[in-house]
Amino acid sequence: MLAFRQMSEEPAGRIAMTEHIGVEIADGVAELRMQRPAKKNALTDAMYHAMADAMAAADADDGVGAVLFLGVEGTFTAGNDVADFLAQSESAVRPTDRGVVRFLQALTHGQTPLVAGVDGLAVGIGTTLLFQCDLVVASDRSLFLTPFTDLGLVPENASSYLGPRIMGYQRAFEMLCLGEAFDATRAESAGFVNRVVAPERLEKAARDLARRLAAKPRQAMRASRNLLRPDGAARHQAIEVESEVFGDRLRSAEAHAAFAAFMAKKAS
Fold it and tell me: What's the pLDDT at 14?
């Protein structure tokens, strides 16, 4: 079952059930922890649903003023669980009912400030998630990687829109198309990490920032955030366009070959 602990008096709302997402609420912060260390926190459909539900509950809870994403020691997330992702893409479930779609919508349209504390590996959506966050703290051993083209795919989560705006076209191309890995120092220089700290300080630093946000007047914070993020429609449109191209690429022979090679390497 979901590891959930309510530490305030306010109701937390409905939470999806999965053992791999832990949710705790304390001091006005909803902490969402990805906790599937045996698979490097690779994200399944159930994990996406759980995070989307927790974010919706945070938006509906006046006692929550920030959402904090965390992983486990040494791993934020390795991105999509490839086997689960392929199974979902081939299922009869409507795209809008898939966990990843609900999660992307929550990132784009949610009203609660988002903070991430990254320690170690952040692959695929583990990196593009950060483009949607308001504050990001990373440990100095973190590594950010988006191997979309290596898998015959394209960028997702509005990263084709946000990447160039955050870090400039060339650096965005280097990360999203060339697939170059960025270390924490480079990520901070590129603009999608606010602070770099030692691993043992990571969670406290991220939690402190989230609590500072949560301590501020809720409506003023939301109004200010909306003024700084007036491009919700553009983000949504980018996700729609990316999703269409992503789906076409997923059905391509090139992607099938890349996934087969990935799975074979993983099994060896």
Answer: 38
